[in-house]
């Protein structure tokens, strides 16, 4: 019986090749989670429920190609599927989940950006321990295998955040790389964030 490899804890600026046991990963799941910061707000009265939204935005060059979010749950090529909106962040585990079939991504798409935004305009100082994790989704019968996790221990004074991006690996055709970013942007809905996202391509 072989033991599972340890989960890679990523930090901002790190990259990870999406290959496992000498094979490129094609089906992955991106899980997003966050906790409400209980002590945030004036005189420590507690924070409101924060409606964070996970979105995935596809680019070809610096041009928007397609996106998946709470109001458009699947990209046109069917490669990215958003599994539904969580409006409070309550409960354990992933608050929102997005599946990505990299083998189905249109050839002209060369970058896929994962962002979160606060729909009601609360800054992300109201949340704590936001994370994105990458799970190998190739074989559901084998159970969940988490590959990497990127956690932000404190919120930021903006309404949006670029968590990570996926890019094609120039040295290995057919493979992709995960880049941890973790930088704040001004955004409440993903369609208004395109110009800000171009800075991270």
Automatic annotation (TrEMBL):
Membrane-crossing residue ranges in chain numbering: none
Mind telling me which Pfam families this protein's record contains?
TerD
- Source organism superkingdom: Bacteria
Report the residue ranges that make up the TerD domain in this protein: 8-188
Name the InterPro entries for this protein. Answer: Stress/Tellurium_Resist, TerD
PANTHER family given for it? CAMP-BINDING PROTEIN 1-RELATED (PTHR32097)
State the protein's name: TerD family protein
Give the originating organism.
Nocardioides agariphilus
